Each structure stands twice: as structure tokens, then as C-alpha cells.
Amino acid sequence: MSEKHELSKRIQEVLDATDDRIERMKSEATQDSEEFRERHEQFLGIAEQLIAEAGYPLKTVESHFENATVMKSDDLEGFHARCLFEHTPRFPASVELRFDITYDEEVRKIILTKTVRILPVFMEYDRTGRFVLDLESGDRGEAVRWIQDQVVSFVQTYLKIQFVKQYRAQV
């Protein structure tokens, strides 16, 4: 009889240990979820500031080009700011400069991306750029400088359209 009791006791210990582990996992999941939510809230605040910072250089570009229009938005995938350039005799291409602000899967990093689209494509240019900022300790000033540098680089690229023969032939 004692062997049966001992076996039952051992099985109960395994069951109890498993129950304890499940409770710890639930507690950790709740804590992880709360930490994720807090990091996401922090991201939203920083991203709003950064998209405003991205909007300023784009608005500055817009003020120099009659064919430019700036738009900002946010959705489930992040924050976006873009400047569209209409096809004109001086700049015979449709162009988009876009900045996106998203995060990594754990919301520990803020990811800024730049995308440039020029249609039709008759020249080489830097189509994409990426800057990663640590959510907790990243230098937002460095991110703003990166955005500004990308805008200046884009303006240089955009102005080159005027000197490419294939674009000039479209006028």
C-alpha cells in the first residue's frame, strides 16, 4: 500500500509543479504584455514627435517646389510622411519621397525608413535608407539629423533629373 501512496504522492508533486509553472508563465505573460503596452505607448509618443520632425523638412522642400505636396498619416503599420512631386516640364518624372516610422517585434527599437520612387527610371539613385533608434536610450537628435540629411540628399537627386537626357527628351 505504501508504494501506491508513494507513487500517488510523486505524481501529485509533478502535477503541482506543472500547475506552479503554468501560473508563473501566466504571470510573466501578463507582465510581458503590460511592458509591451508601455513600450508601445512610449513608441507612439516618440513616433509622433519624429513624424513632426520629418514633416518640417518635407514642408521646407515643398516650399521650394511648386509641384510638391506633403502628406502625413498613421495606421496600424506605423507613421508616414511623404512628399509627392508631380510631373512637370522642368521635372519630367513623377516622384515620391517617403519616411516611415515603425518598430521591431518587441517594440524596443524605432525604425525609420526612407523610400524614394522616381518614374520613369532613367538614372541611378539611392532608393532606400534606414535608421534604427533604441526606444529607451536612442538619440532623437541623431534621428532628426538623419532625416534632414536624407532630405538634402533627395533634393540633390531630384535636381539631377533636369540634366538626364532621357528625361529632357520627354519635354
Task: Describe the model.
The protein is an alpha+beta fold and 171 residues long. It has a single domain, classed as Aspartate Aminotransferase, domain 1 (Alpha-Beta Complex), CATH 3.90.1150. The protein is 51% helix and 26% strand. The chain is built from three helices and five strands; from the N terminus they run αβββββαα. It has a five-stranded antiparallel sheet, with helices on one face. Strand 2 (78-85) and strand 3 (94-103) form a beta hairpin. It is elongated. The termini are far apart.
CATH architecture assignment name: Alpha-Beta Complex
Assess the beta-strand content as a share of residues: 25-35%
Looking across the biggest beta sheet, what order are the strands in? 1-2-3-4-5
Shape category: elongated
**Radius of gyration of CA atoms, rounded to a whole number:** 26 Å
